[in-house]
Fold this sequence. Notes:
heterodimer, A: alpha/beta, 8-stranded mixed β-sheet, about 30% helix, B: mainly alpha, MetI-like fold, 13 helices
Amino acid sequence: MTLPRLLEIEGLKVHFQTDDGTVRAVDGVSIGVDRGETVSVVGESGCGKTVTAMTVLKLIAMPPGRIAEGRILWQGRDIVPMDPEQMRAIRSKEIGFVFQEPMTSLNPVYTVGQQIAETVRQHEGVSRKAALDRAAEMLGLVQIPNPSRRVHDYPHQFSGGMRQRVMIAMALSCNPKLLIADEPTTALDVTIQAQILDLLNEMKERLGMAVLLITHAMGVVAETAQRVVVMYAGVVVEEAPVEALFERPLHPYTQGLIRSIPRLDLAATEHRRLEAIPGTVPSLLNPPTGCRFAARCRHAIPECTAGEPALREIQPGHTARCIRAEEFL
Amino acid sequence: MTQYLIRRLLIAIPSLLGISVVLFTVLALAPGDPFEELATNPAIPPEVRANLRASLGIDDPIWQRYFSWLFAMLRGEWGYSFVSRINVDQLILQRLPVTLVVIGASQVVALAIALPVGVYAATRPYSVFDQIANTLAFVGFSLPTFFTGLLFILLFSIYLDWLPFVYRTELSETGWRWWWEQLRQSIMPVMVLGLFQGAAWTRFVRSAVLDVIRLDHVTTARAKGLPESRVTLRHVVRNALIPVVTLVALQMPIVFGGAIVTEQIFRVPGVGSLLISAILANDTPVIMAVTFVFAGLVIFFNLLADILYGWLDPRISYR
């Protein structure tokens, strides 16, 4: 019998009840992550990638949120029906989470050491002293200078990049098998972004965990991921190994995303304007019939709006949700 | 920290001086003459009266009177009451413990109501509990203490006859009976003040907790796998306490004001009723001293708030 995948999200639908109606933030998403692999989920703001990630640990507010359909298999066990007690045993212990905003994700009234130690104590029941030692060790691991002293500092005494390192140290303190990083570099300076990505890659090598990296930046994807899932308006539109995706994107949305990566060289020498995808993400209150991207797509044909295209495997390991995908090969 | 304390205490001096100037001027400008009684007494010849006035310096200019009052105050001579002929400091020391006990107990009651109710309501916003708590809190702080006080007396003392409605200083009982009587006669004033404050603070605690509960670090705490009770207590309530502490300390002047009214209603022989009777009797030294003690207490609580604030919030440093 083969080992079940580490994480297998199957047909996940997450709905939010609002005054205007039901928002289908995630509308049938399937994503799998294998042991030791980095999978990146990309898409623009509001495509449902963060909600998908948060739902894996049931960190979305319920209500108004609701898992309407689907399964989230963690090592073969469905976490959707799990009670809060069982969820707590998975949080941080088996799946670590790094949030987007390092400036606000740490509690300002406790030292970083206390906050990391709290996680360790919760899951491993070690003494206060041992937990604090582990905290210092983790700070050293994420390359914070002077860890045994810094462990007694408060979050406001750290810069944004350093706080994100603390967050990573905290998420990794119990040796999780999977690290979910929700736009870990979005709030940081460009130079710090690169450092944090390097750190994530290095941590992954050393600790051997899998990483589910949520981002909207194609550059981040190229640097870190082995496999990429592109989301648009609550659904997956393309999934491929990273090389194949950048070499031959099969969905017009992915093509647009890749074209909109800023190229400094071209901007300087040819004064080319940055290409953007026209239009905005459709409302998830009542998504359009047919292909959700059709209204913004330069390759759209009348057939596109007839019915929602299926996610089809166009090449081995490369799927796309576009009726004209073959034409882009 | 010590340096900060010393500096704050030094800053308190000009505030107290300013307060005393204002108090003194207002009282000096107020109508009424402490010698009215002597003036109308035919047994005292006018020249004796004039001599008395001169020796007490009552006809000196205001600023001169202020400075003689100030220096006497600094030497610890607070003067004596025109009415009871008892030294003012003695009078205040007699009355202050009762007031502090009543106010202290009522604040404990208020916090004991506001913290659990406010936190519980905020963790379940718009639930039935929250709606009921909100409504009661609204009613509670809309009703002034002089009204609820009378209502309590009417209900518990007159209709039900459970509690005495006049506070007695000299209790004839001894031993545990004394404590029992003391408790019985304190319940109503303490509850009237405590419920009023508790109602106002419940709403404040609720909104402070609601502000914190949706912050990112609370989600982080959940992602760490902490039990919900620990998330609420350590990562929500702890942070929400920061603004609550400030409010509690800054509301102390209002609490003292409320205590004056409540003491009057229940005939509690505290500083508040002393002040009211002094005002009615034109007893300037007592008015001056009591208001000054109140001002000192208010400044003290502000200092206490600042110290607690820095202790609760590490981002604030004492420099």
